[in-house]
Amino acid sequence: MTAGPDRARPDGSFQQSGIPGDILVFIAFTAVLSAVFYSLALVSSTAVGGDEGRGMRLYITGLMWSPGVAALLTAWLRGLDVRAFGWGLGAMKWNWVGYLLPLGYSGIAYLLVWLAGWGYFADPANVTKIAAVFGWPDAGREVVIVGFVLVSGTTGMVSSLSTALGEEIGWRGFLAPRVVERAGFTGGVLLVGTIWALWHLPLILFGSYNQGAPAWITVLCFTVLVFSLSVVSIWLRLRSHSLWPSTILHASHNLFIQAVLTPLTGVKGPVTSYAIGEFGLCVPAMAAAAALYFWMRRGEAMAAWRRPLHRIHS
């Protein structure tokens, strides 16, 4: 741990300052910026379509960029080196892990939902809507589904990355390494996970970021999910010395769950809202299983974090 601002190692990598003041300034900036966009989003939470829906999306984009802007403001105010945020791509295999892992755990979760009859694949009304939106009104059902998944999973990632990056600059680029320097891997996961979970609560409890289940179930499931993703994201950040694997993980998670698998799932009564999505039981359970695997390998991530930068790209 350093006793001052971020310090460059001889190999060009950085050791982040663990000074509490840096973290407190970041949290203060994040709270102020987020409050602005939370206020706008909560006022507009009933506007879910047309031009009103576009406004809501812009507010959410601003909200998701609040941690990133807060990190950059903190670096400017405290004299920190923004190169320490992990802008390099790192080894490409970790970026692929970030992309494929959410598809794996969410795919297993939704397959369980479909096989158990808690929802069904694929909702005909949504398939028809997808065909109209993409300009494929005369295409067959299978063609629409495959085309939708392929387009979403490729070009759709660009849009998802543009918002996930704002959060990841703050949570994993700036905050996670500093907290891990002070509290270790598990302590860092718990602290970052707690802040990250609390940051989401206003829209969950008072806005439209939920799916109709009772609040206690929604919050419980989402909290399990956030702590699980905190384990994996911080592991990837430390193992790769890059914020991109966690950014890709975040973007892939949002994309495949919110924009692909949930729209393709038909509702079979009230049970569906308890089973699917980020607020149901299945996705958090599968994400927790993935998190346990990475937590058991936490020593590998910490060792890589302490190795010279030129030796970790493998």
Task: Walk me through this protein's architecture.
The chain has helices at 20-43, 50-78, 92-116, 124-133, 141-206, 215-240, 244-261, 271-275, 282-296, 298-306; strands spanning 7-8, 14-15, 119-121, 265-267. The strands form two sheets. The chain has a two-stranded antiparallel sheet. Strands 3-4 form a two-stranded antiparallel sheet. The longest helix has 66 residues, at 141-206. The chain has one domain (86-311). By secondary structure, the chain is mainly alpha-helical. Helix 2 packs across helix 5, helix 5 (141-206) crosses helix 7 (244-261) and helix 6 (215-240) runs antiparallel to helix 7 (244-261).
Main attributes?
two-stranded antiparallel ribbon; 10 helices; 72% helix; 314 residues; globular; two-stranded antiparallel sheet
What ranges have pLDDT less than 50 throughout 5 or more consecutive residues? 47-51, 310-314
Helical residue percent band: over 70%
First CA to last CA: what distance?
A: 25 Å
Rg computed from alpha carbons, rounded to a whole number of angstroms: 20 Å
- Proportion of strand residues: under 5%
Largest sheet: 2 strands, antiparallel
DSSP strand tally: 4
**Largest beta sheet: strand ordering:** 1-2
Q: State the order of secondary-structure elements, H for helix, E for strand.
A: EEHHHEHHHHEHHH
Question: Kindly state the mean pLDDT as a whole number?
Answer: 89
**What best-fitting shape do the alpha-carbon axes yield?**
globular
Structural class by SSE content: mainly alpha
Overall number of structural domains: 1
Q: What is the count of helical runs?
A: 10
